Amino acid sequence: MDSQYDFAVIGGGLVGAACAYGLQRQGLKVLVLDEGDVARRASRGNFALVWVQSKGLGMPAYARWTRQSSDLYPDFAERVGEEGGFDIAYRRPGGYHLCLSQDELDRRAENIRRLHNQADAVPYRIDVLDGDEIRRRLPEVGPEVAGGTYCALDGDVNSLKLLRSLHSAFVRLGGTYRAEALVERIEPGADGFGLVTGKGRFGAARILLAAGLDNPRLGAMVGMDLPLRPLRGQVIVTEKTEPFLDMPLSTVRQTDEGGVMIGDSQEEASDYDVMRPGIHAVMADRAIRMFPRLAGLNVVRTWSALRVMSPDGFPIYEQSVSHPGAFAAACHSGVTLAAAHADVLAPALAGGRLGDAFQDFGIRRFHVQAA
Description:
alpha+beta, FAD/NAD(P)-binding domain, 8-stranded mixed beta sheet, 4-stranded antiparallel beta sheet, globular
């Protein structure tokens, strides 16, 4: 089989788009096959955080990987904005997680202690603050806030502009994008892979599965068992208001356009077109207790989206043993990890081997037999 492309990326969400952009910058001939906006992807329904704080409990490698991406982000954001033509509104002022009771704060502090006491040192600092210190730093915070945590490495971005700019930069650099091209079948061959879609058949020497919740179906075609499950989250967006919050929180953030996003829910669910008013009510109540001024704002949008979760919550990066040249990437932190996917993972893929740096993220961790 004559391969038409050096690399085909299956999936055009944030993970696929960042990897495709990075592969194109390696000088390869790259194709993106994307189901399009009908896909159940989190790239248009996320909270847009570039978040380091508290990540890595149970897997220190993930803490290091997240920190690495955060450190790459300033240059990545500037480059993607220039090459893609969109200011993605990236900022890194630090970020807070607020707690509404002493019990919440104590449990949060214990998790931070456990995170830092892991065998491998976590490469960042998280400060645990009482309510008075939080209110000194964030004067708008309400009296019910018992305290919180702060990490100087946290930030956020306009994730819709990030996705659009990655797609635009990829095409401007010479990449090929095909929408409404769900891959129905992967046909491995002696010199690459045939990809059968409703838009026709395409060939590529190597492939990356970056199709989120569709990765298990695709992985089975190339010998990879990719255990992923959906986790539904709901988001509230208020009308635009004057600037009052110049840094992101884990559950409340004011966007670059002035609206306030509120997101604080996780449900084991497979449908993304269902929203539960009771969950919205709890989210809104918690947000108002954190920032009383929010009680006077109108809600203009709500939505739900499905996160892509592995059994342990950490990313999966894998290469097929039975079908060399087939790779997979899946995670629920497509915004945070976009810089690392473009600038670290993509060069490794271009080299044809993930290597030791990614061994902790392989699927073997889910198939280790008990002694």
